[in-house]
Design a protein that fits this description.
Elements lengths: L1 H8 L5 E2 H11 L5 H11 L18 E5 L2 E4 L11 H4 L19 H10 L9 E2 L1 E2 L2 E2 L1 E5 L2 E8 L5 E11 L3 H15 L7 E10 L1 H7 L5 E5 L12
Parallel strand pairs: 9-10, 10-11
Antiparallel strand pairs: 1-3, 2-3, 4-8, 5-6, 7-8, 8-9
Helix pairs in contact: 2-3
Length: 231
């Protein structure tokens, strides 16, 4: 498709995510939509999500114009590519941020911790990984699922996180992501589950999810252990 080829010839020619998805659907129909969207961010030098997808230095190919538009990266005029620490969200606390001892300071801290330790949720649960694209901030139709995992039975698991309290409105967000993953990312016959994790689950959310068999709720707790160090 010319809209994908033209950025190779002219840095000012723009193409959209929809253009890329349509091109791959025609030429490489087995490549999933989420995988294409993640690679667009991986190649975009100014995307703050690219560090989740393990970009290599030679993959500085694109410049993201807005949420769904891209052009070829021009090293002569565009800012240098963002790399791991530059593109990551800040994890240090500001002086004026009050955080309860039992909760994470930022949703990204909770996300990154769980992404490295999914087996504490259930045995065999792993982070989705395909050709360098991981399930952290996985693109789902212009938005992002916090974590996409794969369970021991091979089902995809969409995990939505709330650093403090989880209210019933989050179930609509999760179901939208699950439906997108089932339609655009899952293999034929592959199951899709959902999980919501928060420091506290509201009664309304508990009631809403009691009617949905493929969604589970979790509350997290933090614990700190101190060990005296001899001097």
């Amino acid at each position: 498709m010319s809209s994908l080829r033209t950025p190779q010839a002219c840095s000012h020619v723009m193409f959209t995510r929809s253009d890329a998805l349509a091109w791959f659907s025609q030429h490489y129909p087995k490549v999933k939509d989420g995988t294409v969207s993640a690679h667009l961010l991986r190649f975009s030098t100014n995307s703050r999500s690219r560090h989740h997808y393990n970009p290599r230095p030679d993959e500085a190919k694109l410049f993201q114009l807005d949420g769904g538009s891209f052009r070829r990266y021009d090293a002569a005029t565009d800012p240098p590519p963002l790399h791991d620490q530059e593109s990551a969200e800040p994890s240090d606390l500001d002086d004026d941020v009050a955080v309860e001892p039992s909760q994470f300071a930022y949703e990204s801290d909770l996300r990154d911790f769980l992404a490295r330790n999914l087996t504490i949720i259930e045995p065999g649960l792993q982070l989705y990984d395909d050709e360098g694209i991981t399930g952290v901030e996985f693109p789902v139709g212009g938005r992002f699922a916090d974590i996409l995992g794969v369970d021991a039975q091979g089902r995809l698991v969409v995990i939505e996180l709330k650093v403090s309290r989880g209210y019933d409105r989050v179930i609509g967000q999760l179901l939208r992501y699950m439906a997108w993953i089932r339609a655009h990312q899952a293999e034929e016959g592959q199951g899709v589950r959902g999980m919501i994790m928060a420091r506290e689950i509201s009664d309304d959310l508990r009631l809403a999810c009691s009617y949905i068999p493929d969604v589970e709720l979790f509350e997290y707790e933090l614990a700190v252990t101190l060990r005296r160090v001899a001097v």
